[in-house]
Amino acid sequence: MNSPAEAARSSSTLIIATPDRLIGQIDEEVAPACHPEGVVLHLSGALPSTILARSRERGAAVGSMHPLQSFTDLEKAQKHIAGSIFACEGDRPALDRAHQIAVLLGAQPISIRTSRKPLYHAAAVAASNFLVAILTLSVDLMERMGMDRVTALRSLMPLIRGTLENAAAQGVPEALTGPVERGDVNTIEAHMTSIHDDCPHLEEPYSILTRLTIEAAARKGSLDSATAASLVAMLEKFEG
Predict the structure, then answer these.
(1) Among 71, 163, 186, 222, which lies 20 to 30 A Cα-Cα from 12?
(2) Which domain covers residue 214, as residue numbers?
(3) Is there a single domain that holds both residue 181 and residue 132?
(4) C-alpha gyration radius of the chain
(5) Are 63 and 113 in contact (CB under 8 A)?
(6) Is the pTM of this model over 0.85?
(7) What pLDDT, on the 0 to 100 scale, is given for residue 78?
């Protein structure tokens, strides 16, 4: 096949697997060739099915299906797709087709509301991209105290895996451990002092994440309001 329009003419189900910025353009190209009762899906996690407006105008049912997984290359994608969640939304026929495709791939389909898709994608970014950002922060701190980055990450991996296993088994925030959860104000103050003195560019992200951890510990019920207030007041000294 030489064009998206040819693909649309030859199949009752069309999947647009392009960068987000091109989906609307492809929709314009395929719409005139769409089967009137066909299905057009895209794979974006951020964009809603409504971006396929031209195909819908031509009578096709439109939807989206997004694998809730991180793919760095084709081999890893093939390995990890089975067992992943596929978040699906759109017109009922398109939603049904997306669910069928997900099941054929060994994935588990779920339906989400089109209007809430930005929140869904923000959650996915927080779980995947922010995790890498947090690991970068941790490795940076290890490097600052004298460990090379490869050894640092290798040293942290058992802790990371254990934390993820605890979260899977116990839920969040129940799996939270550590000095904030214990209310160790002096320990966190020592962290902040050392970061302030040795690597001040990491002070703000560490403080922000500590505030989020305070909120998680309070939700867990392991941190009383007075100790939480003391932790926040200590952080404010550095933030000011």
Answers:
(1) 71
(2) 172-240
(3) no
(4) 23
(5) no
(6) yes
(7) 82
